[in-house]
User: Which sequence fits this backbone?
């Protein structure tokens, strides 16, 4: 079985140690495909099998086995997280696409940068969109959600489910502060000080309710975004030359660090390979047992001789 575990692990090549944010969705989709093919074979892609289908199938094969059930729980937790990551990345990209197109309608000089990953050696953060204008720099965090949102007075980001249940995510106030700090650090290194940075959380879904009690960041809906950028005249006004310098400084500072997965991919792959190999072994044992149970019994020499004698006797007297 060890050989089979090793073989399965070797096939799970996606989501390695050095995957960048830009590569993440592609690698997650590739891992989902590899996991499905391991269980369902090549037809998995044609049937549209995903990670949840894998868990359902394996769950139906591990009933009554305590060891396999425990291993299934670990894999289920990780696979659920992988599914959420895929959904989050797809939803996030769709939201960023909408915001990018919205910014393209701005008539004044506006340089749009997307997925700007910045680091100072200690901190690493990604900015969804940066819009550089003559009125300053807009640091945009895009939220593509169908749930009502509360940003409390401490900057906590809270999603309200349909049943009213509140789910608290990371503190968006701290996140935005870190992004702004990294952006200012980059610009200072380029000799550009005291730039007007407007931090803005953009919600793509105007049908939700948003309550923002955190005074240090502003929020808006997508329909308002181009007008806010267009009409902003706060603070200094930068020349086109300065605007270009700011844009180049941000582009040159962009980095691509390894994405920090929410799960331990190495452990997941080992647990998954062990679970699949164990289920395969269990299935082989069951099939062998059934074959033995229904295997026709061989007739011995004397039984065959007696049957022939009986047929002859019956033929004589009939």
Assistant:
């Amino acid at each position: 079985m060890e050989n089979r575990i090793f073989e399965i692990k070797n096939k799970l090549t996606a989501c390695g140690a050095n995957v960048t944010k830009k590569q993440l969705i592609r690698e997650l989709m590739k891992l989902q495909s590899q996991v499905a093919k391991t269980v369902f074979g090549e037809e998995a892609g044609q049937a549209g099998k995903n990670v949840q289908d894998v868990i359902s199938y394996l769950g139906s094969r591990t009933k009554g086995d305590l060891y396999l059930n425990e291993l299934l729980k670990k894999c289920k937790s990780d696979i659920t997280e992988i599914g959420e990551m895929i959904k989050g990345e797809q939803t996030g990209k769709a939201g960023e696409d909408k915001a990018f197109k919205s910014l393209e309608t701005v008539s004044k000089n506006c340089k749009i940068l997307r997925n700007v990953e910045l680091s100072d050696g200690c901190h690493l953060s990604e900015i969804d969109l940066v819009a550089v204008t003559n009125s300053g720099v807009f640091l945009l965090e895009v939220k593509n959600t169908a749930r009502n949102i509360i940003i409390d007075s401490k900057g906590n980001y809270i999603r309200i489910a349909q049943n009213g249940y509140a789910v608290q995510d990371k503190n968006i106030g701290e996140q935005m502060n870190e992004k702004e700090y990294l952006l200012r650090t980059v610009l200072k290194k380029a000799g550009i000080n005291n730039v007007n940075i407007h931090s803005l959380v953009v919600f793509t879904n105007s049908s939700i309710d948003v309550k923002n009690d955190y005074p240090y960041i502003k929020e808006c809906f997508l329909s308002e975004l181009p007008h806010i950028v267009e009409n902003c005249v706060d603070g200094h006004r930068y020349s086109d030359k300065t605007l270009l310098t700011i844009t180049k400084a941000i582009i040159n500072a962009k980095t691509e660090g390894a994405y920090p997965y929410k799960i331990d991919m190495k452990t997941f792959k080992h647990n998954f390979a062990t679970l699949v190999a164990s289920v395969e072994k269990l299935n082989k044992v069951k099939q062998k047992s059934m074959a033995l149970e229904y295997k026709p019994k061989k007739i011995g020499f004397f039984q065959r001789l007696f049957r022939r004698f009986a047929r002859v006797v019956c033929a004589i007297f009939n």
Remarks:
- Strands lie at 110-119, 124-133, 136-143, 148-151, 156-160, 166-171, 197-203, 210-212, 218-221.
- The chain has two domains: 2-87+261-293, 104-253.
- The chain is about 55% helix and 20% strand.
